User: Fold this.
Amino acid sequence: MVASCFVFVHCADSDEYKKYIEGGEIVYPQKAGFVKTYPGKNRIKLKWVITDPRVAYCDVYYEQSGIKDSLIVDLSSPDYYKEDTVLILISNLEETTYTFRIVSRDDMGNKSITVEEEGSVYGEIYERGLVNRVIKELTPLPEGLKVIWYSPDTTEIAVKVNYIDLNGQQEELIMNHSDTILMLPDCDVKVPFTYQTIYKPLPEAFDIFYTTVAEGKYAPPVYPSELINAQAPFQLTDEGLWFFGRWGTAKGWIANDAAGNNGIVDSSYDYSLVMWAWPDLSPAIKNGKIYQRLSLEAGNYSFEATIRNSNAPKKAYVVVAKETDLPDIDQIENQSLSYQEVVGGMAQGTVLKCKFYLQDFTTVSVGIAGDLNQGQETVYSKFELKKE
Assistant:
């Protein structure tokens, strides 16, 4: 036996269901699409897309301090609606995170489905927590003040620096967040400079935030006010007599490569300080320098060097100069505070005196400099600094 079952379906008009809907068909205008928020300082921007020409208004609802608030956006205004995009600004907001509910509606009062979007507003609390980029190092150079910074915070966008130049004019520079070195051209290093770090809490934020103003000033390093290790026998560094068992390096003295590569203390001269160049042992010396750095109060001074031996140097000086290095040999007579030339054949015990005056607390370099051919040397048994 074969059983058969037939189902008869009555096909009614597709709009037939409408008669069962009280008031007729339900119309839903287009809901807000692609909603984005842009945080600011006590304000926020909202943007969304509406392509449905029936939408006449959008209602935006939010809550602040437990009080519900709302605004109506009229899409007939080009101030808010342009090229299918709605853009509004809500001001006077507290610093917090908000949930915004957007409802579209047409002129007949039909409403869309509600769209929710969260957005943050920043303000004084956020700004108070911002910190300035930290300065790592300040270096005065002939062309200005070189400022080296530590790495930035991830939300930093720039550092603003204001300073006074050598003509007394105020200058302003902006350093990009990716940079760590900023040169302040012709900066007067005696005058403090100020700086602020600029932040954006999020890449899409449309307001920027500033730290409090900080002050920076170059502070010259403070060196000893008296010479150390200043007479024979000059004390050696821990390396001892490292060059051919006869020469070594003097504690507390700075020697550039030209002068220091073959040692500056000679044990055969009762451990005197020496600048020398001998055939088969060391090359000729060009622009050799041996010196100490001192920080001195204002006053009149005399830097004195006692000669042990002077064997026909090509060019040699006892020198006092400002800053932390001696001038190059060809600039000593123009750039020194005081100098005395060392010539060949000076008698043992000859004292060369460099007199100089300081108007303010100043860093100076005191020592010897020279150009020596092979077979030449200058030897010193004692150095003194006297305040007159």
User: Anything to note?
Assistant: The first helix runs from residue 124 to 128. Residues 127-216 form a domain with the Immunoglobulin-like fold (CATH 2.60.40.10).
